[in-house]
Amino acid sequence: MKTPQPPGFADITLNGGTGRIRFERYLNTSLADAWSAVTQPERVARWFAPITVDGQEWITYWDDGREYAKGEIRQCEPQRLLELTWHASDDTKPLAETLLRVTLEEDDAGVLLTLEHKDLQAADFSQYAPGWHAYLDRLAEGDPDLDWSQRYHQLRSQYEPLLPAA
């Protein structure tokens, strides 16, 4: 089941108890700069969160230093594709492996960034849809000072009526 969304909102697809969210954002930059923004830890921290990478393993942290999520890089095609597993560290239920995929495609308007988070439980949509939306707003607008928490709560209330029932 695919749920229609307003422009800029996540494209949400649910099949049974799991599904995916998908965002598209145009970045007014070069392909090399966009790749750097989504792969270099110091750049990722500007719009998302602190992250460390050791070989194929990565970890991201809350602002207070606690681990937030971790996983393994599955595919990396420079300036085109980054795919990794995602395990949220603070889930109270057993950690489910989800897949995060970021693709970049350059055209005359800039760089199209597509972010897909797959294999999410239906109950996770209310957290991940507004969360990724707020992070991508920071990236696309180039404003690391955009108040993520305020934007997240604003978006969460807008997503709630649009999300499939958990």
TrEMBL record:
Native species: Nesterenkonia rhizosphaerae
Family: Belongs to the AHA1 family.
Name of this chain's protein: Activator of Hsp90 ATPase homologue 1/2-like C-terminal domain-containing protein
Activator of Hsp90 ATPase homologue 1/2-like C-terminal domain segment(s): 29-141
